[in-house]
Write a structure and sequence with these properties.
- The chain has about 325 residues and is mainly α.
- Helices cover about 75% and strands about 0% of the residues.
- The chain contains 13 helices and four strands.
- A two-stranded antiparallel sheet has the order 1-4.
- Strand 2 and strand 3 form a beta hairpin.
Length: about 325
Amino acid sequence: MTALTRQDIGRLLARQGILFAFVAFMVAFTLANGRFLAPDNVMGVIRSSAILGVMALGVTFVVISGNLDLSVGSMMSFSTIVVLDLHDKIGPALAIPAMFALTMCLGALIGFLVGYLRLNSLIVTLGMLSAIYGLTLTWSGGKNMDIADKAGTWFGVFGQSSVLGVPVPILMFGGLAVVLAFMLAKTPFGRKVYAVGGNGVAATFSGIPRARIVFLCYVLSSFCVATAGLMQASRSMGSQNTVGQGLELSVLAAVILGGASLMGGSGTIFKTVIGVLILGFIQNGLLLVGLQFYVQYVVTWVIIILAVWLDIAVKRGRLWSPIA
């Protein structure tokens, strides 16, 4: 085997290694449990992944712009609690737009701090994670929320209904993915997001309003979080205050698995969808083979480390550090 061949293999593993691992997982889970690829199980995995997937779509814009968002889990809890609380007070027709407006205000605040004040996105969103959880508990008075008249409302359509046999959450996920994929790949805004994430200084000197682009990415992310909160609330017709706790890591893992670089400037919506499905099927497979649900947290951590390692390996052109 020549040195060139070994180098080619290393590059292939660096770029597509996670897909090879996914195929290995799928084969192993199918052999361990014949129900893994059954149509009802596959549909169930996609449906259960839709909420996480919708959140990941918005975070993809944030990551491509060269930033992070660790507040999406707590923001999803906030949006879910708010729409459930307002449902019984002002009705679903007013509760839904009110929840979207409040959630997007939080996204706008984060966008202002990161985009216009140029604060570190990791620090800002980590602080907002706690702040929004506190806001959620304050709004609810520390209580969980439930819709009083579950049978007399149309609110469940977003999380419980189906169209031609396809669950509405899957349709919402797919529809939003198509729209955002077009926005990212085919519009001037999408090209500016890539430019800002690839080289913010060069983008600024090229006349691209970096602060505005970052601000809009966070607003867009908060819109996706509000959509996920609506789906979650509609699905359960009730919620705990901590329903979104920990989801920020799963969302970030899905985005990175899809190939978006933590350094910014690369990634696609289509690959994010693939990353979401990879996480969903791996977690489902672990449950089907008899492992406890909390093993998922360990697996998610391993996946994040592996994905970041492969991302760095792509940038330097080899799997191992030259000075290791």
